[in-house]
Amino acid sequence: MENCVLERIEEIKVFLEEKIEILLKNRLEKIEVLLKEEIENGDCKLQEELFRLAEGREEGAIVCAFFRSSYLTKSHKFLLAFYREEPFLEENPACIWIDFHLFFQSADEDFQRINREIEKKFIRVLSAEKEEIRRWYMEQLYQEFGGVLFSLLGEEKEGIEVYYGGFMEELYWVGKVKK
């Protein structure tokens, strides 16, 4: 039995590169607006949990980590955890799952636009090709979401360090939080 290879994926990605960049920028701006609205309304679960995890602590770090399975299943749940030492090595860190479904559910609009663009250029686009492009887009969106967190946290000068990235992957600093 031969492996099924999606031969056109790289060609499709090159074709979509500029369009994806614009869609990502617009989607991240919309997510940032939603997050700021939640903060202004006092309904921001992320901010609430960041404060809770940082409360009374002077050392350690908070990590906001995404899982690839989260965008594959479209659940959009992220892990928010406090680690006293090295992230991901502590066995039972203080943690909570944060549901970001509200922020990412509208990315489906982007996929509809992406699919229309693909179908203009390529004939007989396989559903597997569309799914691979969706995953590629979501990976980029999840990675860039850290910039939204940075805009939320970046100005705090004291407090617990906050890092963002994929679970068990490279993390980058997005700010500090202090309660």
Question: How does this structure look, described?
Answer:
This protein is α+β, with helices and mostly antiparallel strands and 179 residues long. The chain is built from 6 helices and 5 strands, in the order ααβαββαααββ. The protein has helices at 9-41, 45-54, 68-72, 101-104, 107-121, 127-153; strands spanning 61-66, 77-83, 94-99, 160-166, 171-177. Strands 3-2-1-4-5 form a 5-stranded mixed sheet. A hairpin with a 4-residue loop joins β4 (160-166) and β5. The protein is elongated, with a radius of gyration of 18 Å. 24% of the residues are buried. The mean pLDDT is 89.
> Regions with pLDDT < 50 over 5+ consecutive residues?
none
The protein's oligomeric status is: single chain
Radius of gyration: 18 Å
Q: What do the pLDDT scores average to?
A: 89
Pattern of helices and strands? HHEHEEHHHEE
DSSP helix count? 6
Query: What would the principal axes of the Cα set say about the shape?
Result: elongated
Outline of the structure:
The chain is an alpha+beta fold and 179 residues long. 53% of the residues lie in helices and 18% in strands. It has helices spanning 9-41, 45-54, 68-72, 101-104, 107-121, 127-153, and strands spanning 61-66, 77-83, 94-99, 160-166, 171-177.
